[in-house]
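Weekly sync, protein design subgroup
Attendees: M.S., D.O., the rotation student, P.L. (late)

Item 1: inverse folding check
M.S. brought a backbone from last month's batch and wanted to see whether the design step gives back something sensible before we order anything. D.O. pointed out we never logged the input encoding, so this time it goes straight into the notes. C-alpha cells as presented (122 positions):
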C-alpha cells in the first residue's frame, strides 16, 4: 500500500512540473488559441477500496489427511503337537542254527527252531 501511495505522489509531482504555466517563464509568449487544460487527480474508484461491506470471503478450509489406520496384529500362536511316543528301535537279534553252526542269513533254513542271540560286538 505504501508503494502505491509513493508511486502516485511521484506521478502527481511529475505532472505538476510538466504542466507549469508558460507565463512563468520570462520572454516566452504563447498563442491564446492553443490553450490546454491539465487535470491532476487520483484515479481511485470504488473498486480500488476492496469488495463491498456485505461481501464475505469464502471460508478457508485446511485439508489434513485422515489419520493412518493402525491394525494391531495378534502374535502368532504356535501349537505344539503332542510328541509321538518314542518307539524303541526294534531289537536286533541274531538267529543261530545249532545244527549248521551258522547264523542267518548265511544259512537260509534250519531243521530245528532258530535260537535268538543278542548281537555281539565284533
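Designed sequence read out in the meeting:
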Amino acid at each position: 500500500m505504501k508503494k502505491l501511495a509513493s508511486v502516485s505522489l511521484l506521478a502527481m509531482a511529475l505532472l505538476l512540473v510538466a504542466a507549469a504555466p508558460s507565463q512563468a517563464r520570462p520572454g516566452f509568449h504563447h498563442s491564446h488559441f492553443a490553450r490546454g487544460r491539465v487535470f491532476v487527480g487520483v484515479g481511485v474508484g470504488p473498486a480500488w477500496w476492496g469488495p463491498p461491506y456485505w461481501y464475505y470471503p469464502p471460508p478457508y478450509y485446511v485439508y489434513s489427511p485422515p489419520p493412518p489406520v493402525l491394525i494391531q496384529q495378534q502374535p502368532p500362536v504356535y501349537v505344539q503337537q503332542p510328541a509321538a511316543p518314542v518307539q524303541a528301535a526294534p531289537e536286533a537279534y541274531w538267529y543261530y542254527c545249532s545244527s549248521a553252526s551258522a547264523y542267518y542269513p548265511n544259512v537260509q533254513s534250519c531243521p530245528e527252531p532258530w535260537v535268538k542271540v543278542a548281537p555281539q560286538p565284533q
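Discussion: The longest helix spans residues 2-18. The mean pLDDT is 75.
Action: P.L. to compare against the previous round before Friday.
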